[in-house]
Amino acid sequence: MFGLSTQDTAAQQEAAERLHLPFPLLSDAGLRLAGALRLPTFEMERQTLLRRVTLILRGGVVEHVFYPVFPPDRNAAEVLAWLAAHSA
Asked: Are strands 54-58 and 61-66 parallel, antiparallel or unpaired?
């Protein structure tokens, strides 16, 4: 599991430490992955940011997409339930 952000690595390290994230953040500052996957974005303070989305990948293939992620505090339980129902 990992997170994806459009921020640079230094900003990501600060956020991961401040938020005590239990997973690494990957940088897509150039929006290459976001563009290739057509991930939803928004503009804030002259910066392009990613909207919350959860992708389930298996064998390098996107198997399921959770979007919109709302409310965000329920997403982890939804993902775990989906994984339990679709485990091979």
From this structure: antiparallel
Are 3 and 26 a contacting pair, CB within 8 Å? yes
Q: What is the pLDDT of residues 27-71, one digit of tens each?
A: 999 999 999 999 999 999 999 999 999 999 999 999 999 999 999
3-state secondary structure the chain: CCEEECCCHHHHHHHHHHHCCCCCEEECCCCHHHHHHCCCEEEECCEEEECCCEEEEECCEEEEEECCCCCHHHHHHHHHHHHHHCCC
Domain limits, the chain? 1-51, 53-88
